[in-house]
Amino acid sequence: MDFNTILEQMAVLFTVVIAGYISGKCKLMDQTLSKKLSALIINLTCPCLIIASTMGDKMPERSLIVPLLIVSTLTYVILLCIASYLPKWFGVKKEEEGIYSFMLAFGNVGFIGYPVVSSIFGPEAVFYASVLNVANTFCVFVWGAQFIAGKDEEHFHWNRLISPAMIGTYISIIIVAISLPTPQVLSRPFILIGNITVPGSLLIIGYSISQIPSRKMAGSPRIFLMAVLRLIILPLFVMTIFKTINVFDDKIVNINTMIIAMPVASFGTMLCFKLGKDETIMAQGTFITTLLSLLTIPLVSLLL
Description:
Layout: H1 3-25, H2 31-52, H3 65-85, H4 97-105, H5 109-121, H6 125-132, H7 134-149, H8 164-177, H9 184-194, H10 197-210, H11 214-217, H12 221-245, H13 250-260, H14 267-275, H15 280-302
């Protein structure tokens, strides 16, 4: 896929984000609708999207499941090590280091990553992205919460591993592992419901941005430094490591690189609210990286 085609795909996705932004400003969407739609996507449509990615005419390669999990684990070992120490060189306040660590380590895979991967690599790539996201899901509730809390009071809850999205991932792995054929009467509902995920999640992102006060949208130079690291440097650094090792399939490395190159995870803002932390920096990072990703994602995809 050439640069113009990728840029066109990103423009289409970002247009839906703009529609969500306008809907928020015009009161067509409110917090209640956003929360209910988020719950619908997280608990129903996204799991269906993941499962549907294994139900097309072309079955994902089951031989890639174990390499996907290995790459996922190694990726977050690298990202967490970097994110734990790099903010100390940013010159930020001690209490802000954890916020920057979270923004560097965790990207918005669920709401933006899956739509982008599907647009660039095809619907079947959602399966690979969902398996690659297993380590992300685990780590965000362990180290992510601790980064923001600034202490070890937040512990991992094992029920996070049986969330609807994770269950969808497990089911999709089983379907691929045993090469289970699915008749259209079963696959079509999953595909139709899963297709709600992309426009729905992008509308929610647009609405969330519309609720950020204007004074909080302009970030400091440190925010922009973080954005460059999150969107370009860290994905390419991890990609270079895997390309140098030259053990894993290029398809795995490329999809992994793209999901690392996503903007800051929107869940970070929710964690700030939950843990009683100031969400200003997190909101700035989320907004700026989401905006810049319109250009950086096509650029990164050209370098794969």
